[in-house]
Amino acid sequence: MPNEQQSQQQPQSQKGKLSLAITIGALVGGAVMLMKSPSARTRIKQSSASTKESVSQYVSEVKADPAGAKNDLLDRIQKTATITKEALNKIQEILDNQGKEITDKVQEVKDESEDIVSTAKDAGDELKDVGDKVKEAKDELTETSEDEVAATTSSENQDNDEDDTDHTVTKTPVN
What is the pLDDT of residues 41-60, one digit of tens each? Predict the structure, then answer.
């Protein structure tokens, strides 16, 4: 049992030391800043004096008329709550309207992109058909050219057969 109390005290003690170290570090940092910057010191003095003055004025008003100060504060809180509620309702209305418009625009873009993809696919299919026709035309031209070459070659062979001479080609020149 004493070990459990010691183990519980150690984390609490460490937490206390950590928060103390953080506080001391913040104070030292603030002091160093104030020593280095005279304008920061002046600004802090002015804001402190202004805050002290407004708090003193508020305290004197509350002391003079506690019920009136309470009612005034409650009225201001209620007005602030009403204004905030109206602003939130307006924001919600804007989000609802804009959200609907955005959703509609997104749907339009989606539909148009589907149409574009479909059109591109159709164009691709048509281009494939055109490619097939071009290939067919090429094959037709190739076959026709081969037939013409064969016909020309056979007619030349026939012409050569009629003019048969005994000519031979040699590598050595004839004198």
Answer: 788 889 889 999 988 888 88
